[in-house]
Amino acid sequence: MRTSGGRRGDRAVPAGTPVLVAHNPVGDDADPSTRDVLDQVALVVTGLEALGAPHRAVPVAGRAAAERLELEPDAVVFNLVESPPGAARLQVEVAEALAGRGVPFTGSDAVAIWLTTDKLATRERLVAAGLPVAAGGRLDPRRPDVLDRVPAPWIVKPAWEDASLGLEGGGVCDRPEEAVARAAALERQYGGEPVLVEHLLPGREFNLSLLDGPGGVEVLPAAEMEYVDFPPGMPKVLGYEAKWDHDSFAYTHTVRRFLEGRGEPELERELEGLARAAYQACGLRGYARVDLRLDEAGRPRILEVNANPCLSADAGFMAAAGQAGLDAAAVVARVLAAVEVT
């Protein structure tokens, strides 16, 4: 685990600075991917309490709420705002509003959040930086010619959603008419949102978490997602069920294992280098997660880049932090230390 690149802020958040933990509102009928933000709030609050930092948690419903947010003098916002299904701009609007007020906040800025929210734009940025991605592009169900350029099997998913939304059942298609029908259904479900199609890479899948540190960004231990005893015909994909349906086969048979100590140092170095390069290419700050998968030749390609990834105790980022010997307080302290305070 190496570090590189200095911190961009002029100075760290001073000790004793009030911290407002901002998160998206969660209704009684919210789906599990939305309710999960409350677990993130709990972890961050635990870390702040261990650090002795004054804090309070507040739901922030959008730009107007962020602009009216009452803040103590010199307060810092720990930005946990996520976009619920079908509301991709919420994260961006809150970050824009905070920046417009000159309020320092954790994680990436609005530009980086918007870039990594749009999977099509992220692909373009990565390709421009010379980084490997799976073959793919936008699938317009009215003009599906992209399927002629992308080999099957295909994974079809909404371009602006995260948390595996739109990947119920895995989202894998083998026939063009099936992919077109799925794209049309996703457009209807998500209000005309564009749909991404990519070649489903056949190899192993990895998550790389990154965290700013005293010497720059640190790549935490690489985790492999293993699909254990999946029956023939069941896509080996981290779909919605594998993330959120605790009673499903996909959830109970998708296992995270770390690469450290498994005798694959060259693969670890290659994954680490790509994760760091993606972090830099997308202009991220504070913390992030990069997902990769091996292609037919066994070489890693980048699937997704996640700004401000999930910080719940059982999520991949905190699992990697724990593997590196970092508890909630240490992670929260480092995320706060990366905030640019002028």
Your description of this structure?
The chain has 342 residues and is of the alpha+beta class. It folds into three domains: 3-106, Rossmann fold (3-Layer(aba) Sandwich); 115-133 and 201-337, ATP-grasp fold, B domain (D-amino Acid Aminotransferase, Chain A, domain 1); 136-199, Dna Ligase, domain 1. The protein is built from eleven helices and 14 strands. The strands form three sheets. Strands 1, 9, 10, 11, 12, 13 and 14 form a seven-stranded antiparallel sheet that branches. Strands 5-8-6-7 form a four-stranded antiparallel sheet, sandwiched between helices. A three-stranded parallel sheet has the order 3-2-4, with helices on one face. β13 and β14 (300-307) form a beta hairpin. α1 crosses α11 and α3 runs antiparallel to α4. The chain is globular. The model is unreliable at 1-11 (pLDDT under 50).
How would you summarize this macromolecular structure in one to three sentences?
The chain has 342 residues and is an alpha+beta fold. Helices cover 33% and strands 20% of the residues. Strands 1, 9, 10, 11, 12, 13 and 14 form a seven-stranded antiparallel β-sheet that branches.
